[in-house]
Structures are given as structure tokens and as C-alpha cells.
Amino acid sequence: MARPKQIYLVVGGKYHDMDFARRELLGLLAEHDDVHTVVAEDYRDVAAIEASDALITYTCDVRPSEEEQCTLRDFVAGGKRWYALHGTNSVLDAHENFEFSCPRTHTTLMETLGSRFLAHPMVEPYRISVAAPDHPLVAGIEPFEATDELYLCEYFGEIEPLLETRFVGDAWPFRDNDWQADDPRLVMYVRPLGEGAVLYLTLGHCRGRYDMRPLVDEYPVIERGAWELPVFYELLRRGIRWAKKEELT
User: Which of 125, 176, 190, 229 has the fewest CB atoms within 10 Å around its CB?
Assistant: First the structure.
């Protein structure tokens, strides 16, 4: 009898509606009758991660220890796949006047993921184009507009761009706020590593009324970002199938 695919789902951290993201991702995973999902809020159970077939993460400012970072690197390099969403590549320090900085720490994690989050401008609509139209993860996807956090990152190692956008301007309240080079800003990419790979999708911002505590007692609006778009769910579904090593057609 075939055993189910074990997916290790990590959803946790700050400043986002983790309950909403967790619920939506579990619903998508439930569409696969050959999947058993283990849910966690961080990476501390390294034995469970090592025993899993694939890793899916939606986090913000979750800081794995060096041992946990090495486990994640070896997990991918050994031939498995990691589907990383939104703020998985973020480490944030909050300062006075609602400023944030992104310390260049957790290098093993960031090099495994292929990127480090540094800033994003204020949330507003931006256009996303397809960088690799023949790649099965984005084949048939038309350019679209999302009202989401536009991630500004630095990159590591081999990167295969899939979706991208453009941005030049100011990214307050982040201290790395001056972004003048008119370079492509990656929205989705594949990071090959050893025998495995990471698929990173920066879309997926969501925030409820109380998710900015203790910085703000009650946030004035509920934000759902790209979760309001059918194309985002299509990208999530394809990414889950990719993580399972299913053939995408």
C-alpha cells in the first residue's frame, strides 16, 4: 500500500493574519487525498522536517537556530522541495517611529531560500509579468495586477525567475528605503540547490485587525492582498503539486 506524502506546513510569526493563511493553505492541501499534513509555527522539530517529503512555509520574522537552518539547507540539497511563501525570507527589527530594519543575519536560511527580504513600499496595486512563459509553473498565466506587498530583496546563488515586477522609489518605513535602480523585482522564482529546489512566491500578504500588536492596538483595515485573486490560488495549487513532485502540464 502506498504511503501518503507528508507535507510539513509552517505558518507563524508577526504582523500577518496567520490564522487566515493557515486555513487557506490547509484547504488547498486537503484537495490532495494522498497528502498527510503536519502543522507547526516554527522549525524547531527538525526530526519531523527531515521525515517529511516536502515543506511549505508562510512566515514573517520566524528566526530558526543555526541547527534548524542547516536542517532546512540539507533537506533541500538532499533532493526535497520547499515551497516558501511571502515573508519566509524576512527577519525584522522594529524601531521607534514605526521604522523597521532587516538585519543581515540567518545567512544559511537566506542562501537556502535564495533571497533576503529588505523592504517593501506601501501596499498598493502593481503589475506582475511572466518572466518564463514556457515554464509549467507559470505557463498560460497572463500578466495581472495585485494589491500586495511588493518585495524588495537581495539574492543568492542560482535563481530562475518566473514572475517579476518593476519598482523605483521609496520604501518607507524600512531603513533600506532608497530603491533607484530600475531592476526586475522577482515575485516568483525557483532556487535550485543540490538535488532539490526552493520555489519562492512573495505574494500573499494578509492582515487582520489585531495583527500589528503591540505596535498598533487595532489595525484600521483588513487586508487580503493577492488572496482575493483567482490567479494566486492557481499559483498556490501549482506550487503544491510542484512540491509533491507531480508532473505539471
Answer: 125
| Domain, as residue range, for 59 | 5-243
Q: What is the CATH number of the domain that holds 105?
A: 3.40.50.880
Q: What confidence tens digit (pLDDT) does each residue in 40-59 have? A: 999 999 999 999 999 999 99
Q: Which of 153, 157, 173 is nearest to 104 (CA)?
A: 153
The pLDDT value recorded for residue 97 is: 86
> In Å, what is the CA distance from 50 to each residue of 68, 194, 201?
10, 16, 23
> CB under 8 Å to 88, separation ≥6 — which residues?
57, 58, 59, 62, 113, 200
In a domain, 249, yes or no: no
CA 200 – CA 214 distance, rounded (Å): 29
- Distance, CA of 232 to CA of 201 (rounded, Å): 10
Helix (H, G, I), strand (E, B) or coil at 232: helix
pLDDT tens, 107-155? 999 999 999 999 999 999 999 999 999 999 999 999 999 999 999 999 9
Total Cβ atoms within 10 A of residue 151: 25
Domain count for the chain: 1
Q: Is residue 248 part of a domain?
A: no
Q: Name the pTM for this structure.
A: 0.98
